[in-house]
Amino acid sequence: MADHIRNVPGVMIPFLLSAFSVFSISMIVPQISSQFHVSISAVLLAIPIDFIGGALGGIVMGYIADRHGRKAVMIVSSLLFGIFTLLAAFSTSLYMIYACWFLIGFGVNAQNGISYPVLVETLRRSSGTIGGTMQSLYFLGFMLDSVLFVFLHYWRTYLIAAGLISLLFAVPASLILEETGSRRMSGRAERDPNFLRYTVAFSFIVIGAFMFSVPLMADVPSVISALRINPVYVTVLSLVGFAGFVLAGYLSDRYRRGYVAMGFTGAGVIFAIVLLLEGESHYLIAILGTVYISSGFFSFSGIWVSENYPPGSRALATNIVFFSGRIVGGFSPFIAALIDPSSLVYGIAIVCIVAGLMAFLGSAYVQASKSRKPALL
């Protein structure tokens, strides 16, 4: 493991910048809407388009990673999301934004999906803590978007900077990776009789995780802007979400992952119901903070999934599970905006309730299976 320890920063830096790239659009939705004379919901459609690209990228690149190794795929994925974030700055129509975000998603989710197997293959202990820290970089990447926007308000300049930053740091970080896969892995006949039912159960968890967390990063900035709340709260909420992810990852190493997931998802449903009842009250930021913390169950989901598949199919299997999460979860910000166009908060609350229940049920099933057959999970 010692000679592979460089893989930790080698996956974390690109992971951070992948989140930075993909959620950069959340800060400039009103500007793009005004620029191309379209509705807010039309701009938000870029998010599900991104996740559709990500679902395809995850499957294709995961297949290649299982057969030809992880490192080259990580480098190509980092190049993709950096280049197309940069090119998005020169868009002349909303359709060009859509095309760029599709390709950004292809790179981002390929990178993310392969990062989990790399960590599992590199680390033997405390992978939930490290994995939770890595997953929490979604919030730090989102926070970097808000910080960059403080200095660069114009959307084209902002995207140029975001693309250049991603290229300058993500690609070199990918280059330092030590290969953890091999061509030999894919040649082994590995059959798991529980593959289908575990894949379905984990898909419920991952769909719920994406549905719960993506609107918090894609929709909440628009809520804060519309209510004329100080935008610094976007950064504050990002840090709260980061803390929740790290805490959940740590707890998942100390206790059974299924129980920790059930605790966080159950709390998430309760807090989302409070958000639904309170709406745009004076306590909005505080309530949102509790929802952000509850989203921490997403933090160890990638590690949890990856550690339950054999090495020869790990990258592909992980991306198969994440395929459905990316497709369904990617539409969640758009769905939240459509539920009640007059109150995005209401839509976010409904989506989080449904997502939390799905993830709770999936976690309960996996934990029950673990209790019956400890060696498998």
TrEMBL record:
Gene3D superfamilies assigned to the protein according to its UniProt record, in alphabetical order: MFS general substrate transporter like domains
Gene Ontology molecular function: carboxylic acid transmembrane transporter activity
Chain segments annotated as transmembrane: 12-32, 38-65, 72-90, 96-120, 132-152, 158-177, 198-218, 230-251, 258-277, 283-304, 316-339, 345-366
Top-rank taxon: Archaea
GO cellular component: plasma membrane
Bilayer disposition of the protein: Multi-pass membrane protein
Keyword Cell division attached: no
Compartments reported by the entry: Membrane
Name of the molecule in the record: Transport protein mmlH related protein
Organism, scientific name: Thermoplasma acidophilum (strain ATCC 25905 / DSM 1728 / JCM 9062 / NBRC 15155 / AMRC-C165)
